[in-house]
Design a protein that fits this description.
single chain, 385 residues, alpha+beta, Rossmann fold, Dna Ligase, domain 1, D-amino Acid Aminotransferase, Chain A, domain 1, nine-stranded antiparallel beta sheet, four-stranded parallel beta sheet, 13 helices, 17 strands, 34% helix, globular, binds adenosine monophosphate
């Protein structure tokens, strides 16, 4: 009897997302191999890691030979690398979808084409164009790099038009290389995200909406399912479906949304598993990581229903002591195995419960034990609201 060969999933990028993909792939009998330019990429602690430059074709060739399919743990994989691999091995999402999501201008243009409103925006290529855009959009506004910006990096907030010089000093140099976009600053009521997965046959499933809080542009706290969203789940799911079909998307993606006057506005799309979906590991029947692996390998999709209520704390810069959290019922620790560094995502914790009251009690217990009450407070306010 011949042994069944284990499918091998290649992940371009070896960060915590690749690491969590590998951990979700293993029970499915899927082996994961990650590829990164950094020898200490943290996925390497749980899966084989190939280390080479993004344009090292010999290394990419060897990688393509050892995997059955390729996916990505970050959207800024050079387009040429993604394309080169996609020509040799099945790749999901497809490089065109990555390219759209890499550019804030094409992303927001696509949102509008698909009927999803966005904050007012205009491309900015020169200092004069910035004044023109500010005249059209008004202040406050945010100037962002079109490419390679994430977690609030490559952004400058303009409170008044008088901030234009400072904004240009900060980002003007990036205008030639990456392009810039000016967006109206939206005084939103809430930030939500919808995680969705589309299978190879076109089946689409969405997890319940997640409510998110950012600090300095970086995700700090998530609550799922987002409470009090009357009707927004169906709207968000419909937008996710339209976008996924337009892009012929396969795999998991996140759509980050603002709620303003009760209406959804599209902020950005992440063409990959996403930080605001980490709660699904323990808080949903099938996690975003498991369903991404299933989709990329053409397996049936798992159930995206929530098991109860969940809150996720992001650990930025350094990890708190895990021991007090480990004493709390249904609280789950995730250490990415990364060295501490200011602004770096080094881990997260998810607290699960049957409902809002129990979740509030557990979140408070964790937050007090870890000295993180201010970080938890927005979720506690909502859960007890
Ligand atoms: P981004 O990298 O574009 O997702 O921005 C990071 C965070 O900055 C978002 O999650 C929001 O909290 C905030 N932000 C970005 N763009 C806007 C905007 N146009 N209006 C208000 N807040 C924004």
């Amino acid at each position: 009897m011949s042994a069944r060969r284990q499918p091998v999933l290649g992940v371009l990028g070896g960060g915590q997302l690749a690491r969590m993909l590998a951990l979700a792939a293993a029970p499915l009998g899927v082996k994961t191999v990650a590829f990164d330019v950094a020898a200490d990429a943290c996925a390497g602690q749980v899966a084989p890691l190939r280390v080479a430059a993004w344009d090292d074709h010999a290394a990419l060739e060897a990688f393509a030979r050892e995997v059955d399919a390729v996916t990505f743990d970050f959207e800024n994989v050079p387009a040429a690398t993604a394309q080169w691999l996609a020509e040799r091995v099945p790749a999901a999402p497809n490089p065109q979808a990555l390219a759209v999501a890499q550019d804030r201008l094409s992303e927001k243009t696509l949102f509008r084409d698909c009927g999803l409103d966005t904050p007012a925006f205009m491309p900015v290529a020169t200092r004069e164009a910035l004044d023109f855009a500010l005249g059209a959009i008004g202040a406050p506004a945010i100037l962002k790099t079109r490419r390679l910006g994430y977690d609030g990096k490559g952004q400058f907030r303009l409170r008044t038009p008088a901030d234009a010089d400072a904004a240009w000093d900060a980002l003007g140099a990036a205008a030639a290389e990456h392009g810039l976009i000016l967006e109206a600053f939206v005084p939103f009521e809430r930030e939500l995200s919808v995680l969705a997965v589309r299978g190879q046959g076109g089946e689409l499933r969405t997890w319940p909406l997640t409510r998110n809080w950012h600090v300095d542009g970086v995700l700090s706290l998530s609550l799922a399912p987002a409470p009090d969203i009357d009707g927004l789940q169906e709207q968000a799911a419909a937008h996710a479906r339209t976008l996924a079909e337009r892009l012929d998307y396969v795999g998991v993606f996140a759509l980050e949304l603002f709620v303003k006057d009760g209406r959804l506005l599209g902020n950005e799309m992440a063409p990959r598993v996403h930080n605001s979906g980490h709660w699904t590991i323990e808080g949903a029947v099938a996690s975003q990581f498991e369903n991404h692996v299933r989709a990329v390998l053409g397996l049936p999709l798992g159930d995206t229903a929530a098991r109860g209520a969940s809150a996720m704390f992001n650990w930025i810069g350094e990890l708190p002591d895990p021991v007090p959290l480990l004493r709390v019922a249904d609280a789950h620790w995730h250490d990415y195995g990364k060295a501490p560094r200011a602004g770096r995502k080094v881990g997260h914790a998810t607290v699960c419960a049957d409902g809002a009251g129990q979740l509030a009690a557990r979140v408070e217990e964790v937050a007090l034990a870890l000295g993180r009450l201010p970080q938890a407070q927005p979720a506690l306010d909502v859960l007890r609201g």
